[in-house]
Amino acid sequence: AQKITQTQPGMFVQEKEAVTLDCTYDTSDPSYGLFWYKQPSSGEMIFLIYQGSYDQQNATEGRYSLNFQKARKSANLVISASQLGDSAMYFCAMTTQGAQKLVFGQGTRLTINP
Amino acid sequence: NAGVMQNPRHLVRRRGQEARLRCSPMKGHSHVYWYRQLPEEGLKFMVYLQKENIIDESGMPKERFSAEFPKEGPSILRIQQVVRGDSAAYFCASSKSVGTGTENTEAFFGQGTRLTVV
C-alpha cells in the first residue's frame, strides 16, 4: 500500500523567504508519480507540480521546485520568495502504476507573515 | 473550456435524508475520482469510475454510499440515510487517461461539495 507522510502540521515564514515543505512516501511500486496541491481557504485544490519516479531532473514550475530524493523516498516542495498569497494548506500526494488513485498526506498549513 | 463542475457547492441535509452530489468531468475526460475531506485532514480516496464502470471502490463505505458514471450525464455520488459523520467536503476529480505512474496524468479537481448533516 502507498503512504504519504507530512510531518509539519503548520509552518510560519516571513514574506520573501524561501520555505521547504516536507513529504516522505512509501511504496513498493517502482513506477509512481508525486504531486503537490495547494488548498487556499476558499477550498479548491490547485495543482502545483509533478515528479515522475523515473525523472532524472527535479521538477520546477515558476517559484515551485520539488526536491526529489529517491533513495530517501522524499519529495519536498520548495517555494522561493514566498508571498502573502502562498498562505494555504499544502498536500503531497502520489499515484502508482498499480493504483491510479491519489493518496494524500495530512497536509501542512503554511502561513506567510508580512 | 469549463473545468470540473460539481454541484451543489453546499448541501444541507437532515439525518436520515439522502444526499446526491453531482460531478461533470472536464470535456474529453473519461476517468472520474471521488474523494472525501474531513476538516483539517487530507483527501481520502473513495471511488474511481470510468463511463458505466466502477474500477476501484476500495475507499467507499460498504453501506449507504454508492457512485455511478452513466454513459450520458454527470457522475453521481449518492449517500443514503445520512448521519452527522458524513459531514465533509466531497471532491470530484477527472483525468483524460491513466498513465503508467510515471506520466503526469494530472487529475483536475472540482470546487467540491460541502455536505452538512444537521
Topology diagram in text:
The complex is a heterodimer of chains A (114) and B (118).
Chain A: E1 3-5, E2 10-14, E3 19-21, E4 24-26, E5 32-39, E6 46-52, E7 60-61, E8 64-69, E9 74-79, E10 88-96, E11 99-104, E12 108-113
Parallel strand pairs in A: 2-12
Antiparallel strand pairs in A: 1-4, 3-9, 5-6, 5-10, 7-8, 8-9, 10-11, 10-12
Chain B: E1 5-7, E2 10-13, E3 19-24, E4 31-37, E5 43-50, E6 53-56, E7 65-68, E8 75-79, E9 88-95, E10 108-109, E11 113-117
Parallel strand pairs in B: 2-11
Antiparallel strand pairs in B: 1-3, 3-8, 4-5, 4-9, 5-6, 7-8, 9-10, 9-11
Question: Summary?
Answer:
The complex is a heterodimer of chains A (114) and B (118). With 114 residues, chain A is an all-beta fold.
Tell me the series of helices and strands of chain B, N- to C-terminal: EEEEEEEEEEE
Helix content of chain A: under 10%
Discrete helix count of chain B: 0
- The general outline of chain A is globular
The number of distinct helices of chain A, counting runs of at least 4 residues, comes to 0
Question: Strand tally of chain A, please?
Answer: 12
Query: What number is the mean pLDDT of chain A?
Result: 94
Q: Give the averaged pLDDT of chain B, no decimals.
A: 91
**Basic shape of chain B:** globular
Largest sheet of chain B: 7 strands, mixed
Secondary structure class of chain B reads mainly beta
Total strand count of chain B, please?
11
Which structural class do the helices and strands of chain A define?
mainly beta
Radius of gyration of chain A: 14 Å
Task: Explain what the structure shows.
In chain A, the strands form 3 sheets. In chain A, strands 2, 5, 6, 10, 11 and 12 form a 6-stranded mixed sheet that branches. Chain A has a 4-stranded antiparallel sheet with strand order 3-9-8-7, with no helix packed on it. Chain A is 0% helix and 56% strand. The N and C termini of chain A lie far apart (41 Å). Chain A has 114 residues and is mainly β. In chain B, the strands form 2 sheets. In chain B, strands 2, 4, 5, 6, 9, 10 and 11 form a 7-stranded mixed sheet that branches. Chain B is globular. Chains A and B meet through strand 5, strand 6, strand 10 and strand 11 of A and strand 4, strand 5, strand 9 and strand 10 of B.
